[in-house]
């Protein structure tokens, strides 16, 4: 009756964007008369559709060596609205400033903003939000997972860089010396260890075991030829990246030789009135080792020639080998001594040599003659001839 055109059902711009209505006006006469006109109704778009992503999750892998600005994966959403209502802007939800990834707000490309480092972080998982331009705006989100693939961009690193070891020269081949360790943060890094310098005469070998390098003796050692080795150990990864370490090995002298007395056996003489502390003779032994293995100590085990077993008359200087009188001597009691001298080195176990030292005691005139009896008596007839034996007296001197 009023001519007002009104909605009877909801409109949907995305289904029908315009309506062409034919309106007829008719009077109440008889016969009635009428006329028509057309009404064009254009439906205006409202922001009644939220953006939608083509998939709920995007996944992509990228090498850690890609340059800054490299496009990794494109996230795309669509919006059924039109105009500003369908203009989508992309952003990463709760993005950290340190994150090396960003999204282009218009195109949706996920790209790098700084260099990637798998060793620092190998996987990024985040939400990308798509917001349309409507008022009020509508949004949607999707999950993005970016996996960083390894590139051999790290050198092996020894820790520590210097090693010390000590070996006795008599250690057999195959004896472990020390273990060196290098690490490589790259993925599946298999390190190969090699002795690249300092291995004089090929005395040592190295094998790779469980990511470490085990150094062992390969050839018999000889202290007299080499007393110190400075081995350069090189660790190489599959990409020929390397690092080096130094292993200092000190060789200690093994107790290979026993002391040997010079000019053995020994003999000497000493006057029986020699004062205590008189040096009778000096014994000397030599040792072909060096260091503590050649440090000789002299010991004295003596017994007298006549079997009395006297230990007191003599002593020996443990360092110099000087045999010294330790008591008053008396040739009339003991005319000689047979001493046994032992020379021991400082090795472990210790080696030794022994020699005999014969000492004779030289007489001095320290005893007066003594008559056998204090008084002699005899009788003789007065007519005894001259030359007749009267009595025989006797004296002795020790």
Task: Tell me about this structure.
The chain has 398 residues and is mainly β. The protein folds into three domains: 52-149, Immunoglobulin-like (Sandwich), CATH 2.60.40; 157-252, Cadherins (Immunoglobulin-like); 260-362, Immunoglobulin-like (Sandwich), CATH 2.60.40. It has no helices and 30 strands. The chain is rod-shaped. Its main location: membrane. GO terms for molecular function: calcium ion binding. It is found in: Membrane. Keywords: Calcium, Cell adhesion, Disulfide bond, EGF-like domain, Membrane, Repeat, Signal, Transmembrane, Transmembrane helix.
Give the C-alpha Rg: 57 Å
Strand order of the largest sheet: 4-11-10-7
Terminal-residue CA separation: 178 Å
Average the pLDDT over all residues and give the rounded result: 91
Indicate the overall shape.
rod-shaped
Low-confidence spans: 303-310
Helix content percent band:
under 10%
CATH superfamily of the largest domain: Cadherins
Q: Structural class given helices, strands, pairing?
A: mainly beta
Please give the count of helices. Answer: 0
CATH-defined fold name of the largest domain = Immunoglobulin-like
Sheet with the most strands, sense and barrel status: 4 strands, mixed
Features:
Immunoglobulin-like; 398 residues; 43% strand; 0% helix; four-stranded mixed β-sheet; 30 strands; four-stranded antiparallel β-sheet; 3 domains; rod-shaped; mainly beta
Short précis:
By secondary structure, this protein is an all-beta fold. Helices cover 0% and strands 43% of the residues.
């Amino acid at each position: 009756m009023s001519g007002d055109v009104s909605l009877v059902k909801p409109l949907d711009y995305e289904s029908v964007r315009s309506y062409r209505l034919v309106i007829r006006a008719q009077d109440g006469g008889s016969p009635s008369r009428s006329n028509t006109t057309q009404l064009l109704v254009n439906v205006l778009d409202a922001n009644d559709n939220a953006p939608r992503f083509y998939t709920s999750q995007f996944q992509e892998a990228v090498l850690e060596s890609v340059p800054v600005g490299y496009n990794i994966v494109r996230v795309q959403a669509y919006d059924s609205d039109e105009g500003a209502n369908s203009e989508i802007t992309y952003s990463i939800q709760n993005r950290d400033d340190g994150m090396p990834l960003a999204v282009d707000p218009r195109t949706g490309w996920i790209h790098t903003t700084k260099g990637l480092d798998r060793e620092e972080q190998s996987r990024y998982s985040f939400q990308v939000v798509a917001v349309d331009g409507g008022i009020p705006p509508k949004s949607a989100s999707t999950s993005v997972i970016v996996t960083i693939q390894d590139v051999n961009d790290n050198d092996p690193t020894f820790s520590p860089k210097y090693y010390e070891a000590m070996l006795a020269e008599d250690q057999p081949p195959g004896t472990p010396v020390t273990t060196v360790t290098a690490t490589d943060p790259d993925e599946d890094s298999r390190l190969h260890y090699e002795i690249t310098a300092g291995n004089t005469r090929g005395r040592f070998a190295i094998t790779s075991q469980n990511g470490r390098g085990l150094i062992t003796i390969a050839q018999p050692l000889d202290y007299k030829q080499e007393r110190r080795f400075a081995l350069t150990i090189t660790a190489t990864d599959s990409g020929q990246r390397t690092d080096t370490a130094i292993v200092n090995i000190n060789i200690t002298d093994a107790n290979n030789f026993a002391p040997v007395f010079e000019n053995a056996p020994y003999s000497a003489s000493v006057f029986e009135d020699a004062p205590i502390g008189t040096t009778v003779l000096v014994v000397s032994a030599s040792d072909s080792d060096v260091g503590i293995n050649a440090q000789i100590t002299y010991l004295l085990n003596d017994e007298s020639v006549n079997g009395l077993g006297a230990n007191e008359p003599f002593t020996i200087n443990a360092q110099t080998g000087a045999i010294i009188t330790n008591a008053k001597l008396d040739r009339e009691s003991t005319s000689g001594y047979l001493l046994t001298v032992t020379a021991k080195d400082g090795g472990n176990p210790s080696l030794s040599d022994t020699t005999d030292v014969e000492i004779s005691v030289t007489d001095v005139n320290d005893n007066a003659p003594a008559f056998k009896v204090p008084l002699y008596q005899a009788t003789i007839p007065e007519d005894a001839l001259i030359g007749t034996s009267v009595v025989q007296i006797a004296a002795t001197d020790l």
